[in-house]
């Protein structure tokens, strides 16, 4: 019994230090604090229940990010397609006050990030937000380092192009 407590304590200690980074990554993926916390909790539950599958010589941080990314792709992307659930009482139009250019630019950047293909978006978040090295990102995504470099280059080019052209407004003629 004491041996099991020691193992559980070591697992918890090893994982705890990565929780802040997991929360940042989850929030960057889902952009909702409650959903991000749910995603982190699901990720940690999977990690603990599958601890025996982890390679002892592997990078724990990359393994946790891979679990989170895979879980997000499995479930949360489908929710994203369906759209958020908003109570009618809470639904209202909010205008941007004058002088809020920075907030609008940030919103445009996040919208552009959401338009990227999933593998490019995940890669930008892992390297740009979570500061993973190319090697760590490659392990987390299960791809070669060269693939990480080429996807990252394409993602940055695409994001830059989207931000330079600005948001597209679609008008239609009414007779």
TrEMBL record:
A GO biological-process term: DNA-templated transcription initiation
GO molecular function: DNA binding; sigma factor activity
Pfam families: PhyR_sigma2 (PF22029), Sigma70_r4_2 (PF08281)
RNA polymerase sigma factor 70 region 4 type domain: residues covered: 108-159
Residue ranges constituting the PhyR sigma2 domain according to the UniProt record: 15-68
Keywords associated with the record: Sigma factor, Transcription, Transcription regulation
InterPro entries associated with the record: PhyR_sigma2, RNA_pol_sigma-70-like, RNA_pol_sigma-70_dom, RNA_pol_sigma70_r4_t2, RNA_pol_sigma_r2, RNA_pol_sigma_r3/r4-like, WH-like_DNA-bd_sf
Gene3D superfamilies associated with the record: 1.10.1740.10, Winged helix-like DNA-binding domain superfamily/Winged helix DNA-binding domain
Domain of life: Bacteria
Family named by the database record: Belongs to the sigma-70 factor family. ECF subfamily.
NCBIfam families, per the entry: sigma70-ECF
Protein name, UniProt field: RNA polymerase, sigma-24 subunit, ECF subfamily
Organism annotation: Methylocella silvestris (strain DSM 15510 / CIP 108128 / LMG 27833 / NCIMB 13906 / BL2)
């Amino acid at each position: 019994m004491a041996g099991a407590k020691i193992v559980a304590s070591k697992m918890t200690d090893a994982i705890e230090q990565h929780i802040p980074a997991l929360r940042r990554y989850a929030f960057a993926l889902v952009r909702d604090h409650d959903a991000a916390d749910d995603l982190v909790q699901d990720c940690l539950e999977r990690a603990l229940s599958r601890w025996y599958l982890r390679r002892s010589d592997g990078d724990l941080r990359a393994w946790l990010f891979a679990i989170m990314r895979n879980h997000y792709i499995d479930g949360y992307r489908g929710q994203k397609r369906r759209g958020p659930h908003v109570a009618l009482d809470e639904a209202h139009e909010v205008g941007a006050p004058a002088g809020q250019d920075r907030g609008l630019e940030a919103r445009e950047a996040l919208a552009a990030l959401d338009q990227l293909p999933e593998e490019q978006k995940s890669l930008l978040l892992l390297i740009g937000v979570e500061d993973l090295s190319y090697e760590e990102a490659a392990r987390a995504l299960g791809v070669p380092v060269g693939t990480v470099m080429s996807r990252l280059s394409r993602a940055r080019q695409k994001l830059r192009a989207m931000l330079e052209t600005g948001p597209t407004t679609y008008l239609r003629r009414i007779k």
